[in-house]
Amino acid sequence: MKRNINNAKLDKNFILSKISQISIFSAYLGLSEEDIKHCIDTGELIISPLRYDRHPTCGFRYDNRGKLKFKDFAGFIWGDCFDIAAYVISYTYNRSIDITNKKDFISVLKHIAFTFGNIIYGNEKDENVLKDLSIGRDNIKKSKPIIEFVVREWNKYDIEYWEKGGVDLNWLNINFIYAVDQYYINRKTNPQPKYIYDKKDPCYAYITGRDNKGIHDVKLYFPKRDKHYTKFITNYNHLEGIYNLERDDYDYIVITKSTKDRVALSKMLWAMSSFTGDELKAKIGTINIPAENYKLSTAEYYWLYNKLAIKDSKRLICLMDNDKSGYLEAIYLRDEFGMLPIYIPKIYNAKDFFELRSIYGFNKCKEFIIETYNKINDYVTRNQSIRNKETNDIMPF
Fold it and tell me: What is the pTM of this model?
């Protein structure tokens, strides 16, 4: 059969007159058409075929114009069948495809026509194309998403939220935290913004570094979302606050479980050392793990250890949430690296430091910190060279 479909004829309407949206999604996502139809009919979600996903987070739905959309509710990607095809093609052939560029879009249409050559051209189906697309999906799973965001001005709602934890706008800027107007993920192949600012669902971006390819490490945080919605979207998995841990002679380093706890605590410590004279002379650094199930590497441990003036693992203090997941992480850091775990007693009705600061204010938290520091410092100095059963206890804050 002849293959003389010209570019003038090759457009969306021509493709969709020959091939259904479901069929295109099926080929490029590696899903069966039956599974896609089931998702459409029932509204059920499935495991993402484009990233490592522990829970069903993706689904299909027709919009009011009859266009079928695929959406990852974790916030990584959504689009129609042409958007998804472009995304998979770009990773299949290691080629940056800008779907807003007419030439690139025509190449996507050509690939779809070739993939369905048995329908478009009357040829035998080429199974190698589907194998290539499978490799492309694997490449996507292994790749680092490029997260870009548009910064907006801080407003009174943002200021009120962060000031509850004692964090002002200057401190947010120092710690590379920004208010987000909209964000994109892999914008060239998926050009629609994944979020547009809504005061009922604010988003903040943390920039925590940049890799050797120049891609920024970004975490997006949605504080008002509950457990049923994604509160964090990120493209990395490493310690946060590295840029702000500048010294190599810390007396102690406190490791928290989140950025907001770290910046709230670091602001308190800075204010105390700046304005309260002799009340807290110690040099205390702060850093945080990206999540409470994070497994600190040996290299990361020694990087922190070597930033201490006195080399003692008990001078690395882990302050996790006072709940089950927090306890488990604290016990892991204690058993694996010999760190000293502390926690905020439940009688304070605060599971983390940000909440503690928002409930009790500066002066009361200052008392807590000084009291806790004196206990820890006395404990550590008395047991500098002793490792006994007592060092396996978890200390209250």
Answer: 0.80
